[in-house]
Amino acid sequence: HLYTFEKDLQVVSCSVNREKTLLAASLVKSTEEGRRNELQPGSKCLTLLVEIHPVNNVKVLKAVDSYIWVQFLYLHVESHPLPQDQLLLISEEKYIEQFHIQVTQEDGNRVVIKNSDHLPRHRIAEDFVWTQWDMTEQRLYYIDLEKSRSILKCLQFYADQSCDLMFEAPLDITLSDSGFKLINFGYDYRQDQEKLCKYLTLCVFTNHTGSLCVCYSPKFDSWEQITYSVFYFHKGYSKTFTAALGSAGSHGTQGITFLNLERYVAVYLPGHFFHLLNIQHPDLICHSLFLTENNKTNDTLPHSSFQSLSGSLVLDWYSGRLYRAFLDQSYLLRFLWNTSLDCEKMAILHCVLSCGQDPQFLEGQIIQWISENVSACHSFDLIQEFIIASSYWSIYAKTSNVDTILPYSSVLTWNTVS
Hints:
Layout: E1 9-16, E2 22-29, E3 45-51, E4 58-64, E5 68-72, E6 84-91, E7 95-106, E8 110-113, E9 121-126, E10 128-134, E11 139-146, E12 149-157, E13 163-171, E14 181-183, E15 201-206, E16 212-217, E17 225-232, E18 237-244, E19 257-261, E20 264-269, E21 273-278, E22 289-291, E23 306-308, E24 313-316, E25 322-324, H1 329-338, H2 342-355, H3 359-373, H4 382-396
Parallel strand pairs: 10-14
Antiparallel strand pairs: 1-2, 2-3, 3-4, 5-6, 6-7, 7-8, 7-9, 10-11, 11-12, 12-13, 15-16, 16-17, 17-18, 19-20, 20-21, 21-22, 23-24, 24-25
Helix pairs in contact: 1-2, 2-4, 3-4
């Protein structure tokens, strides 16, 4: 162990810098039963900055009566380590500070904090009600309320220690200023104390093609139906979806789950519905998949509470395990053979081809399926759609602007749900 803390202390948050020379940790006192106290007057949350090598210097960054979360920036530098580390402190009092930490090497490998008594810092956000950290892009998304409007803002951090406001945009959603929610800042103890289905779900998803989506589901009290919205920022519009929950199974306490699958967003509630939204081409409903409680797919969905991370990674809160989510090509092929709806045939055809696994075998399977089902598809030309879709997905990974070169689909309008 590098460090051990007193048994009556519990870790709220911790983060290690890129070079693994500094550790930031936020700690609170626990009761004798092992539960965190409610931070009554006199209680303290200690936020510490610790040198890892050598183990001989601990700096108290904050000692306050509110919870603090910490996050080091992992800024990319080509040739040499950064002379200065950047650390974010996120406070339960709804402000975010950025610390600038200079380090120096002494006697070979000894890395120590320079001028530890005078660490420069400044506030980069205040009065937010929701915030999300994007580790891959080193971006901070947060929402504050301006004249009762929910404004989404995005800060981009750079290696020269600066940060820019990339954009701000209003969201047509209603948020309360009585609390706040953190996404991708580690485990949040409050998720054990709250029934997830009674609270809103909101997350930002991006991918390497430049797509940016905000997925939002308000809190709901009724189990008759659920509503969620997706803001397609890269397209300039949003869509709202409603799913009937019916009477399938036990409702439990889990809320709606959004998973980032790069070109798709999966939206589901186990035992009730599963939606696979095409975020690059969301215009037509036939390019997305909508399955109800009657479909057997819902029986295979995990019932754990997941948090979607960057790069299709998902975190299981209860087990603490990381998984990589992906679309199962074999299952999709079986689904393609069994479905009778033309809209599902269109969605699954593109979904299977987008997987890109063993294209020769895949195309052989699809050609066989087309030969046996060509007369059973009435809304579009199966052969024409396969030629266009296979051409599109064959160069997708190699070309950044494939949409300017090839059409995505032969279907321009869709007026049926068959």
